[in-house]
Specification:
The complex is a heterodimer. Chain A has 14 helices and no strands. By secondary structure, chain A is an all-alpha fold. Chain A has 2 domains: 2-77, no CATH class; 101-258, MetI-like fold. Chain A is flat and about 85 Å long. Chain B contains 18 helices and 19 strands. Chain B has 2 domains: 32-245 and 491-510, Periplasmic binding protein-like II (D-Maltodextrin-Binding Protein, domain 2), CATH 3.40.190.10; 270-483, Dipeptide-binding Protein, Domain 3 (Dipeptide-binding Protein, domain 3). Chain B is an alpha+beta fold. The chains are: A mainly alpha, B alpha+beta.
Amino acid sequence: MPVFRFILQRVFQAVLVTLAVTLFVAFTVRLTGDPAVMLTAESSSVTEDDLVRIREALGLNQPFYAQYFDFIKSLVTFDLGNSFFRGSIRDLMAIALPSTLLLAVASMGISILISIPLGIHAALHKGGISDQIIRVLSLVGLSFPNFWLGIMFVLLLSIAFPILPASGFETWTALILPALTIGIILTATNVRLVRTQMLETLSQQYVMVARAKGLNERSVIYKHALRNAAIAIVTFLGLQFGNLIGGLVVVELVFNWPGMGTLSIEAIAQRDYPLLQATVSILAIMIVAVNLAVDLVYGLIDPRIRVA
Amino acid sequence: MTIRQTFLAKTALRSALLVSCLALAAPAFAQDTTLNVAQRQDPQNLDPIDTFRLSWGSIGSNVFDGLVFRGEDLELQPGLATGWEFLDDETRIRFTLREGVEFHNGEPFNAEAVKYTFDRLLGDEGAKGPQRSNYTSIREVVVVDPYTVDFMMERPDPVLISKLAGYGAMIVPPKYIQEVGEEAFDMKPVGTGPFQVSEYTPTVGVKLEKFDNYWNGEAKVDAVNIRFIPEDATRIAELLSGGVDISLNIPTPSVETVKQNANVDLVAVDGPTVDLTRFNTASGITADPRVRKAITMAVDRNTIVKALLGGLASPISSAQGAKSFGNDPALEAYAYDPEAAKALLAEAGVAPGTEITLDMPNNDETFREVAQVIAAFLGQVGLNVNIRTHERGVYFNDIIENGKTGEMYYYGWGGWTFDFDNTAYILYHTGERFNPYVSDAKLDELLDAQRQTYDRDVREAALQAVARYAHEQALDLPLYNKATIYGVSKNVEGFDPAPDDRARYMNVTLK
């Protein structure tokens, strides 16, 4: 069963990558500061005894390998352990992980819905006015920093015309502005990608053959050209999704979205080792998983890859 | 239905989020009033002994009470204790407890609860958190009768009574904690305060509801929804768009935006925090008091306060604000005099064009501007200042603690106790963790002596002497005392701004 071997191989790789990432994070974060000191940084009567007592209570007096082993154990058992300062990590993840995924999926969705039709349209009317407009707009989109676009949306749609909430995540309306912000930024890249890929496939001989066969234009574009262009597009979107999950931090902050980015930034600021290790490992696992999924999706799109 | 309609009509100007939230909630709680509040930080743990954060103060002060109460005027008053007296040569403090008080879960408040609170704080559970060290002057709490306790003191602690009014000394319910466990208490604590915690969602917010059996009056709103919004621009946007009624932690750069908005008031009150730059008094050119004095004379603090802080700060002459116990109103800072500064530098043999370094953390946008202005002022007297920024954790735990700073370095400090002991001990006592350079027998003696007595006059004189000595030696360049700034919607009435960020919401009403 080549498929199983393929999946097994990838899972094995994923485990190795995760181990390497966690080891690196666990080691380096311990070089940057003492959580006991961070915890008491605003207290005026802390003695060295107090610090020792806190380190003991947090398990920081144990050797590195013991601390790391505890962490790996908690990861494998999905228990995730406790943060130094804020209780069960699993409870924190239960909020952060779904909200980050929701935002990432919604933004990707918006971007795909806009960029595929626009990209195809631009490719079919290459050099025409609509193609020029789409290219210029996507260039403008590429030049926006995402936090700036986010703040502009808030100024316009929450303060000047109070239609949508400025932040939060308790109602579905709160999702619109952050998802739109990221969606538009992603669209700028994706439109160009779809356009280029479509242009390339449309110039292939089999498209000419399909047209020569007398197939209608719809079927040529969607069944032959788009399906072949899709391999490159899906690869790119997969990588993009991985980047997105790790890169939502700024937009999460602007819209006060309680996601993984916010959580890991706070963990770094406080030197909350267990929480930081957990967030980074889970992000790493997700990125690896997305890549694995992309590989599997190839098979669906292109039967040739399934065999190989 | 009519109630619901008028209610919706009143809030028509608010954001879609709020309206839809309330509309959803309306069938169940049609007549309830909810105050919406935004604050910067999530305290991350609601247990009083696990935090030092101001962000806990603005939640905890609504949920818990201490034996002593200190409100917005900073006067110490009876809280859960109706009175206290010093016995046995001030080694024992007897508290008489208030009767008829109950916790949110119905558990009675009594001497056992007080003993449990301090046993827990000073024991193993307290050792995991940052609050224990503030209360180690207490050896033990002894129950005398159900409504009397004695605090047996390990050593004199003149700031103890103030410290009993906040943070680690908040009284907690023994039965509840034993029943639900420490971890559950972190997330859903129970106190005796005017509001009880109904739901805490980490990184999102905390919901409080009115406690009907509060011993000291009744909250005027039914619920408070406190949201954590770390990003300044977003918090201001929520305030301006009506998403929240009160916003804490208004940053200086947003002051004008808030002032200009017709629906919102800016409310400011002197806070506990002071900003200063300290000197490396141990080595380099700043080891010479004349150079330090010259630098303090070369910087015009009034201009900084007016131009950069929008007037929402007051220049200071020592490392404390006017409300601090130990502040000496008669002590005047060195006047701005660049010519005299130049003369002093020349006398000390410092050549024009000498390079010095100012270190600061990288996450303080306001001070970044202040530092640039300080550099410009010092440039005028011939000192070229390099500003070096560091990640905050690294800055405090390495650069300052291990004495790796340049000639000057930023220090911001302020204890909620408003007692100069808190700041002065850390800044000037030999061997303190954040004091890498100053070691002076006279300062040590003054600082230690005032910790041995409860006599306010003696202490005040000693603390003022510390301030004056630091001034004479120019141990640092005191800059300003920052205001605590709130943004308050015009539909809010009865909000009394707390100087220490320990905002209380029980007397607030919504129009």
